[in-house]
Write a structure and sequence with these properties.
The protein is of the alpha/beta class. The protein has helices at about 1-25, 30-45, 230-235, and strands at about 75, 80-85, 95, 100, 105, 120, 130, 145, 170, 175-180, 195, 200-205, 220, 245. A hairpin with a 2-residue loop joins strand 3 and strand 4 (about 100). The radius of gyration is 24 Å and the shape is globular.
Length: about 260
């Protein structure tokens, strides 16, 4: 009889533990929840222009609402810290590389400072007016950053070079032109994947140390204007290169001097 009672007691205790763990996972961190609401406030001011567009409707100012369950948000299942924000194409309609919506205000990157464990940030196709500041530099855990379709140029990379954990940088559909790689890219020493497709890059500098890109494994450069073998020589010297896309360029169309 005592054995049955003890067994029931153990079952009850296990149930209490499970309920406690479940309840502990219910809510995300308050500072991150408030950070998301502050970010939504900025995005709402930018996107809503008298239309019926609802920005991030699941992001509600309710302490009982678990922000880990909000749309475009992913949390670590153990720590409940936000590790991924997918904020692609918040407003407008995409046409090719760009959409018909342009941010009227500069994006203050300090809006992301609450998310200290963030590993993936996708801000693609928002055509953000980029302000060089130190806000993103606090994201020292960031490994993947997608800034495609935002009209960026090489000068915008200066404010990102201190992101030492960055492994994947996606910059497709921007306004990069001239030589590849730009001097600014050499500061991203831990990059493994680089996507600069759909830009206006045209050649590769002859004097550039591939050692600065020793970890680069995947390079995506399709739909640019490369037309010389210099780019092939440089890419061929990358020690870790495993995957390369140079399709839809002008390789093989290099001009040759005519015979006199």
């Amino acid at each position: 009889m005592k054995g049955m009672h003890l067994l029931k007691l153990i079952h009850v205790m296990n149930l209490v533990i499970l309920l406690t763990q479940f309840d502990g996972k219910k809510a995300c961190f308050e500072e991150e929840r408030m950070g998301l609401l502050e970010l939504k406030s900025f995005l709402k001011q930018e996107v809503v222009d008298g239309s019926d567009h609802v920005v991030l409707p699941s992001w509600v100012d309710d302490p009982r609402s678990d922000c880990c369950g909000w749309e475009r948000v992913s949390c670590n299942s153990t720590t409940r810290r936000i590790v991924k924000l997918s904020l692609s194409l918040i407003g407008g309609v995409i046409y090719g590389c760009y959409n018909d919506f342009v941010f009227s205000s500069y994006l203050n990157a300090t809006l992301f400072q609450s998310f200290k464990d963030l590993k993936t940030l996708n801000l693609s196709y928002n055509y953000i007016r980029w302000q060089e500041n130190q806000g993103l530099l606090r994201l020292q855990q960031l490994e993947t950053l997608d800034l495609s379709g935002n009209g960026l140029t090489s000068s915008h990379l200066q404010s990102l070079m201190e992101l030492k954990s960055l492994k994947n940088l996606i910059l497709s559909c921007n306004s990069f032109n001239g030589s590849f790689p730009t001097p600014e890219l050499s500061g991203f020493e831990n990059l493994e994947t680089l996507d600069l497709s759909w830009n206006s890059l045209s050649d590769s500098p002859r004097e550039l140390d591939a050692a600065n890109f020793s970890k680069l494994r995947n390079v995506v450069l399709h739909n640019n204007y490369f037309n010389s073998t210099e780019i092939l020589r440089f890419l061929g010297s990358l020690p870790s290169l495993r995957s390369l896309d140079l399709s839809s360029n002008m390789l093989g169309m290099e001009s040759t001097p005519s015979n006199q």
